[in-house]
Design brief:
Layout lengths: L6 E8 L10 E5 L3 E7 L13 H15 L6 H18 L3 H6 L7 E7 L4 E5 L3 E4 L2 E3 L4 H19 L4 H6 L2 H13 L28 E4 L6 E5 L10 H14 L23 E7 L1
Antiparallel strand pairs: 1-10, 2-3, 3-4, 4-5, 5-8, 6-7, 6-9, 9-10
Helix pairs in contact: 1-2, 4-6
């Protein structure tokens, strides 16, 4: 038997469009696990029964984490989740397509807390704040493409475009899309290189770097888990929301204060879906 000590303090989830059916983020609160899942933004335009690959990945991972046994290890959980996504490909007759075209895969990042093992597990670029210590993985390829997009936006502005015009038609984003599709050939890539990054997509590699495990002290404390829809996370939802609001107010294109590969377009509420959960253990 395990002593379950998790106490949810606050949680929040919001899709960038405001439509929950289009949101690719998800939260899990089960007897043994708490998790944030961030389905990858769809850049392939492929849909499966009106769902994006990122939304499918999120739904599959959410369901799988909810069914894990308490004593499941991080490595077993990683294998079980990837096997579930792989099985979905088989069941829907798209396995060979997904093998050949990584940009169409059901891809997601996640940060998972195992209460039984007192561990945080991170795959991809979700964030965690453990008793004041921030874990905020990022990808070198994302930094590279964010810098390139910022340069392209500055070039357009120097040619007379306005930020308002670029929020309507982000030519910087358009010009890096081919690179973003190519980068997906590097997810879980073997052999590894400095641009390799790790996600749940049904095709795991055998690298020990694919999963980060953070021990959690047996003393009681507080944990925040969040997706990278928050540029930075703080010890409260209100602080995290306030910082995001400042970014969106002062830099809606997300190329100055916070450089990323996309901005807040049209009537969208933010540049990305976001989810946040704070709990005591």
């Amino acid at each position: 038997m395990y002593d379950i000590n998790m106490q949810i303090v606050e949680h929040f989830i919001m899709g960038k469009t405001g439509d929950p059916d289009l949101c690719e983020d998800g939260l899990v609160v089960s007897e043994y696990f708490t998790a944030v899942i961030d389905g990858a933004t769809n850049i392939s335009s492929v849909l499966f029964n009106s769902r994006t690959p990122g939304r499918i990945a999120m739904d599959l991972i959410k369901e799988t984490i909810g069914s894990l046994e308490a004593e499941t290890s991080a490595w077993d959980a990683e294998r079980i989740i990837n096997r579930r996504i792989y099985s979905w490909y088989e069941q829907n007759n798209v396995l060979e397509t997904m093998r050949r075209f990584p940009e169409q895969r059901c891809t997601a990042s996640a940060v998972i807390y195992s209460d039984a093992r007192r561990e945080l597990w991170l795959v991809g670029d979700c964030h965690a704040l453990l008793n004041g210590v921030l874990y905020q993985p990022d990808k070198k390829v994302d930094r590279l493409l964010s810098e390139l997009r910022a340069m392209l936006i500055c070039l357009e502005l120097s040619r007379g475009k306005t930020e308002t015009e670029l929020l309507m038609k982000d030519t910087g984003r358009e010009k890096i899309l081919d690179f973003m599709r190519m980068q997906m050939e590097l997810q879980n890539a073997v052999p590894e290189n400095e641009f390799t990054y790790y996600v749940f997509d049904g095709f795991p590699c055998e690298s020990p770097n694919r999963l980060k495990i953070v021990p959690v002290d047996r003393q009681n404390g507080e944990i925040v888990l969040a997706s990278d829809g928050y540029p930075k996370i703080f010890a409260s939802l209100s602080e995290s929301e306030d910082y995001l609001a400042q970014i969106l107010r002062e830099d809606p294109l997300c190329y100055k204060l916070y450089r990323t590969t996309k901005g807040r377009y049209g009537k969208n509420l933010s540049f990305d879906d976001r989810s946040y959960i704070r709990f005591r253990y």
